[in-house]
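Re: that chain you flagged

S.,

Sorry for the slow reply, it's been a week of failed gels. I finally had a moment to sit down with the sequence you sent. For the record, here it is as I used it:
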Amino acid sequence: MKEKEKNKMEIRFKALSINESFARASVAGFCLQINPTLDELTDIKTAVSEAVTNSVVHEYSGIPIGDVVISVTLFESSVKIEVKDFGIGIENFTLAKQPFYTSKPDQERSGIGFTVMESFMDSLELENNPDGGLKVTLFKKIKDNEQKAKKLG
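Prediction finished late last night. Pasting the structure tokens below so you have them in one place:
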């Protein structure tokens, strides 16, 4: 059974590192509507931080700084988060998702952003935008709500 959309929001901001905490707090605050546990909320915040940091550090490398757009869709027992930028995109998803791979070794980057996102969320999808840039889609089940929905349905 496909879950019915409960609420949705979108925010847009410049791809600046100072905006990462704004993005994390905004998404977390919006997700409170579906009553996640503290651990689930921490997972969401961590994954959003990594996705936004990826856009800030990698996507606008060598080109003018653009925007990051975050869309959050809430369902009864899950959340879908899309983090989209309009930068350079990723040529090889398989390589980029390998732990410790980084395109910025000279900047002492750890190369674990996608690994962190995958470990804290239930799924991660990467897609290059047709008009340039990258879309990271994160999905997280909210366990307590999932159990309640099974009992009611």
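What I noticed first: Residues 5-152 form a domain with the Heat Shock Protein 90 fold (CATH 3.30.565.10).

Talk soon,
D.
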